[in-house]
Write a structure and sequence with these properties.
- There is one protein chain.
- The protein contains 13 helices and 6 strands.
- By secondary structure, the protein is an alpha/beta fold.
- A 6-stranded mixed sheet has the order 4-3-5-2-1-6, with helices on both faces.
- Helix 6 runs parallel beside helix 9 and helix 9 packs across helix 12.
- The model has no long low-confidence stretch (mean pLDDT 94).
Length: 269
Amino acid sequence: PLFWSVSRDGSVLGYLLGTIHSEDARVLEYNSSFLEKLTGSRVFAMELVPDLPTLAALAERMQLPEGQDLEQLVGERRFAAVKESLGSYGVPVSQVRTMQPWAAMMTLSVPPPKTGLFMDFSLSLRASGAGVKVVGLETLDEQLAFLEGMSLEQQLALLDHAINESGRAQEVHDELVGIYLANDLDALHDHAMAQLDEVPEEARAMFLEQGIVARNRRMLETALPHLHAGGLFIAVGALHLTGDSGLLRLLADRGYDIAPAGWPFNGQP
């Protein structure tokens, strides 16, 4: 399931929720039992706190160095496809030209935003509104390191996949939300891996090792001091929970007891 309690010696020290990057109303409507656990926590930990300085720094990092042009990096044909795909996101051509290849890829990997109220942001607002301290499990440098560390060839492989799938972004997203709301982390993991199977092996391996596995270990180490103090609520992307290197396994390996903590949303899975 998506939502877990984390205990040691019979005492609940916190909760761990796998989230999905979605504005779908069904993942924004939480039941009272879940909200009591969230707002009754001492610390809310998310991957990256989306405050204004962080968002401004992210916007800057998504841009190519002055004097560089995306068309020169990716070629005329690929640039035309990127330009066409990003047109539906309202991104002007002048801005497309200055985007890092990985930034264009990440933008195309999700449907165009409508409200900006994604699940993790919604949870952080509820937590901070209840007086819960909000912290990030990563810095912006740490989160972007694997993207910026990819070779141009690896970035282009992922960009090509994003371009090919851009017409299906909403369809793929809706499929993921449906699997997510079925409360099945394993099925969600399998669906994501099937998508990555279409990416060349080198880029896929880099994405998994640096974008998932290494980040899982880093987020765990950042979370542990808060967890030892108790009252911690962790909300990170659901794919960070699954598999042999996922947070559930890492916590269990550290001697914590993990147990399903109930269904977070209104209605039933």
